[in-house]
Design brief:
By secondary structure, the chain is mainly α. The chain is 65% helix and 3% strand. The protein has helices at residues 2-10, 19-27, 64-84, 99-123, 127-130, 135-165, 174-218; strands at residues 87-88, 91-92, 171-172. A three-stranded antiparallel β-sheet has the order 2-1-3. Strand 1 (87-88) and strand 2 form a beta hairpin. Helix 3 (64-84) packs antiparallel against helix 4 (99-123) and helix 4 packs antiparallel against helix 6. The longest helix has 45 residues, at 174-218. The chain starts with a helix and ends in a 5-residue tail after the last helix.
């Protein structure tokens, strides 16, 4: 009876976790639960060479974090294309006195594309399980920084647009630049939503680890 109760408490299904990782978590005894990292991807120090081969985990793309990562890549590409495709009275926007504001936005978009795509590849494969890294904390920091960068850089482009729209010269492809700013704010929202999602998962994992320690020390969980 005690053995079945312990099995029931340890078989916890983690939200937004690929099925492979969930089954691995369920098979871990209570004394090994601390080896599960905060992204629910298990790092095994004793992986065989055959098991250490990189394999795809396409189920990650069907989770909310995976879907947000895909949108971040696509929207960042769209924002970059829109902003760099515009010009001011036929001249490059980089010739404006406020060109540095556009450079900040371009920098933010490029960094977003590279980081979001890299993290997508890592979590859509077994790479994340081969590295002893607190992926959840790392992603919270990265997404938080990108949220702030997109808010600042998009607001800077908007201020430059407003400043030079009153001049005698006009923006070429004005609608494209406006679309780029809108997409920039969408990226800000996507990263903000991602941070919120990751913080909720961190809270759930903290509760899970606390209950696991209670189970290991006392043999029961106090709710």
């Amino acid at each position: 009876m005690e053995e079945s109760e312990e099995t029931e408490n340890t078989m916890v299904v983690v939200e937004d976790t690929p099925m492979v990782a969930q089954s691995d978590v369920a098979k871990q005894p209570a004394k090994h639960l601390m080896e599960v990292d905060l992204t629910s991807n298990i790092y095994d120090k004793n992986l065989d060479k055959a098991d250490a081969d990189v394999q795809l985990q396409t189920t990650y793309m069907c989770t909310l974090p995976g879907f947000l990562r895909i949108l971040q890549v696509l929207m960042s590409v769209g924002a970059l294309i829109c902003v760099t495709s515009t010009s001011f009275n036929g001249d490059s926007y980089l010739l404006l006195p406020a060109a540095w504001r556009f450079r900040v936005f371009v920098f933010t978009s490029v960094v977003s594309i590279l980081i979001a795509f890299l993290l997508l590849v890592i979590h859509a494969s077994t790479i994340s399980r081969m590295m002893a890294i607190d992926w959840l904390s790392l992603e919270i920091v990265i997404s938080g920084v990108m949220t702030l960068l997109y808010l600042i850089s998009t607001a800077m482009v908007g201020s430059a647009f407003r400043e030079f729209s009153g001049k005698n010269k006009v923006w070429t492809d004005r609608s494209i630049l406006l679309a780029g700013m809108i997409i920039g704010f969408i990226c800000f929202g996507l990263y903000g939503l991602h941070v919120t999602t990751l913080l909720r998962r961190r809270r759930k994992h903290g509760l899970f680890r606390h209950q696991s320690l209670q189970l290991e020390r006392t043999g029961s969980v106090i709710s």
